[in-house]
Amino acid sequence: MPRHALDLIAALARDEASLRGQEFLAPLLPGSKARLRVRGLIYELALADARPGWWLCRATGSSSAEIVDEALPWQRGDYLGFWPALRLVLLEPMQHGTWLAMPFNPADAAQRFGNPGPRPLHLVEGGAPFERVVARVEGNTCWYDEPDRRADPATAEALRTALAAEQVEPRIAGLGAGEQAAYRLLWNNTARAQAEAEAAQATARAATAAAHTERRLRHALELGGARLLGYEPMGNGTMRVTWERGNVRSVTLVQANLGVITAGICLSGEDHRFDLTSIVGVVRESPRYAELEDF
User: What is the pTM of this model?
Assistant: First the structure.
């Protein structure tokens, strides 16, 4: 093996050995690893008690670390100062202090970071929809830095008011491209959620109505000594009801009030004189030749 390769291996071994006991600052997410850069190499250190926040950590080996204390604001500022800034518009919270956010200037975000669209922003302090903030971009990760001092808080409040009023387009002058895109996204999400809620309510109402109808049919047939096998809505409140009595299957077309339209046997046009309960006895007593084909 060449001498320079042996020297490199020895240097790496010394670096790993020197990690133990070294303290460093790390932003952490739930279950994440702390990252430590040593001479251009990045070490990922597992923490048994990793929790969201900015922490001072101590390496306990080449692949493990422990939390020592919470980082001070100036320490966090020093860390964030290494990374380029990106102005964002908050959209909606996700979990553990992470928000979905839209670049305030999508064209600039596309040019500098290759992505003009929404992205997760981690360790946000406070936050409200449409609030403008400054993030720091570390690779593919965005860390919250501070509120955007260039922003007018009244604009975010006006956008929230417009969204609450269900305005398709906010009537607010001077909005940035990112604020307009953020509003469209949240408006679409709100409209979709409302449509899904209405659909769910309609489904629940239909299920309740179906259960009520089935109970009515079952009760009416049981009064006549028969058993409901099933029913099929036919439109305009009519139903095709299948039932049996004494192992004999019958089909009856009824109105919403359970009045008979077609009994399933030949009644010479007198079907309307019966309801679902009384027709059970009529069908039972009818001769076989009077039975009709299923309709």
Answer: 0.66
Does residue 57 contact residue 65 with C-beta atoms inside 8 Å?
yes
- Please write the tens of the pLDDT for every residue from 36-70: 776 667 778 888 778 899 999 888 887 888 888 99
Alpha-carbon span 223 to 219, nearest angstrom = 6
Is residue 19 a contact partner of residue 61, using CB atoms and an 8 Å limit? Answer: yes
Whether the CB-CB separation of 240 and 232 falls below 8 Å is answered with yes
What are the angstrom distances between the C-alpha of 15 and each of 18, 19, 59, 60, 160? 5, 6, 12, 13, 52
Phi then psi dihedrals of residue 152, to 5 deg: -100, 115
